Methylenetetrahydrofolate reductase (Kaistia hirudinis), 305 residues
Amino acid sequence: GRASRNGGGANGLGVSFEFFPPKTEAMEQTLWTSIERLAPLSPSFVSVTYGAGGSTRERTHATLARILSETTLNPAAHLTCVGATSAEVDAVVDDYAATGVRHIVALRGDPVEGIGATYRPHPGGYAYSADLVAAIRARHPEVEVSVSAYVERHPESPDWSTEIDNLKRKVDAGANRAITQFFFDNDLYSAFLDRVAAAGLSIPIVPGIVPVLNFTQTAKFAQKAGASVPPWFAARFEGLEDDPSTRQLVAAAVCAEQVLDLVDRGVTDFHFYTMNRADLVYAICHLLGMRSAKPAPASGEAVAA
Ligand code: FAD
């Protein structure tokens, strides 16, 4: 039932987990092993991404449908408006709602030509995520809406007032919460919260946490996303390129340090970019005091990676 699709830790902390739709049978297996391991932690919601330019539309939908039919988790569906008409996007929103999805992460998306290309709104589409938020609100008032936030500014925002004005437009359009792009320096997050508060915005700004499964990959991804990698952070992974088991231990320690420091700063909700892997995130949630009634066995992915 709907009421049981509500997580929430006994210790007042809440977590959510982000997954991407699998491309192959093997990836599907990995995803479901991870979902089964993380589900007993009773996350507030689990979100499923929408591939660049809608490339995973069917797979995103299929993953959401399977979560709804096989678990009691509360799924959130990502949706972007790039490269599609508003009628096409509305149809996806209606399909989500008809399937039983009650939470959408509303995004603009990146130019289909790749990050770095100039974004151009589709002539018949929603231009920015604030427009998508308004459309979802109008069509399905019962659907919860989350949006993005960038503690280091979105790469296309020339200054902070542009950035905060955009967040304000999304809040005014009806967004319930923002989830941040990942970051490694918690001071950036605190400074961002100050800017948000100064603008009079009061929606939760949930930190997006990325566990570093592979530093080289994460650094590349960070550069594309406009997230900085502080030298002290990079130094922690130095020389571990060929040492996966030490890398995993360091990754857990580094992520724990970040998350526990955020708790000290008053953060109560965390969104984990899981990359469809469970073990590291499960360990961090354990450190946050979360316990599952019937833990599934560790997958051994940490040593296998
Ligand atoms: P917006 O909030 O629309 O803002 C984008 C830029 O446009 C900003 O610089 C803003 O200042 C500017 N802007 C806004 N309104 C106007 C206006 N009226 N005129 C001029 N400029 C304006 N991408 C995917 O493809 N699939 C996903 O599933 C996905 N999930 C994500 C989840 C999270 C939590 C985050 C943080 C990002 C995610 N992304 C995803 C990436 C996202 O699509 C990109 O970062 C994209 O570049 C911006 O999308 P947005 O919704 O943040 O944009």
Remarks:
- The chain has a mean pLDDT of 93.
- The two ends are 37 Å apart (CA to CA).
- The pocket of flavin-adenine dinucleotide is lined by residues 49-50, 52, 78, 80, 105, 107-110, 128-129, 148, 154, 156-157, 162-163, 166, 179, 181, 208 (CB under 6 Å).
